[in-house]
Amino acid sequence: MLPSLLAREIQNGLKHFLTTGFEPSDPLFAGVMQRFTQDEARWLKGPYIQVGLPFRTGTHGKTFFENFETEHPGHIHSFSHGPAPKTFNFQHLEDALASLTPLLKQSLAEGRKVCVIVPTKHDASAVQGSLKAEKLATTILGPDERDKPDSKSVRIATMHRAKGLEFDEVVLLMPRNWIEVRSGADNGQRLKYVALTRAKRVATVVQY
């Protein structure tokens, strides 16, 4: 392939990647990546490509979440959906699981799409078993399970599986010392940040 044609193919591929992977779903920022990529002079520089994503830093800095500090200041589009998350603390996993039922029933009754996000697949199975015992319909979003927007069930996903997804409400269920005992505290903080920013309207942390 001619170098000029190859370069154009790479440019088109990057443009598609940016508009599909980084286009915000918030109506306030709708179309920002589409407009950004249309002005090629801003980010296509000769034989090199320079990408400066048009995101602005929020006013909360690293302390938007009440019980932990993020590694870097958050962007406005990450924190523009709703209030800061509430945190509930319990002594035991059984108590934390029992607290989910009334919380999730209220969310479903108010028509919100809700997902319980947990650290591991084992945790996801424990949540599903507890909710099924309370007659709540659940769906575990595994590697091959796509989210169905019209589903009325409670979604359950691991922190890794939740990447790139969005829900009206997120409930993050995790051990209180999970980040400290996990190898690589920075990575644990990033995963927690990713999980909580999957919420478009409401986020809740349930710790045990």
Describe it.
With 208 residues, the chain is an alpha/beta fold. It is 37% helix and 18% strand. The protein has a 6-stranded parallel beta sheet, with helices on both faces. Strands 1-2 form a two-stranded antiparallel ribbon. Strand 1 and strand 2 form a beta hairpin. The radius of gyration is 20 Å and the shape is globular. It starts with a helix and ends with a strand.
Name the quaternary structure: single chain
Average predicted local confidence, pLDDT: 81
SSE run = HHEEHEHEHEEEHHE
Question: Which strand order do you get reading across the main beta sheet?
Answer: 3-8-7-4-6-5
Q: What Rg, in angstroms, do the CA atoms define? A: 20 Å
How much helical structure, as a percent, in the residues?
25-40%
| Sheet of most strands | 6 strands, parallel
Summarize it.
This protein is of the alpha/beta class and 208 residues long. 37% of the residues lie in helices and 18% in strands.
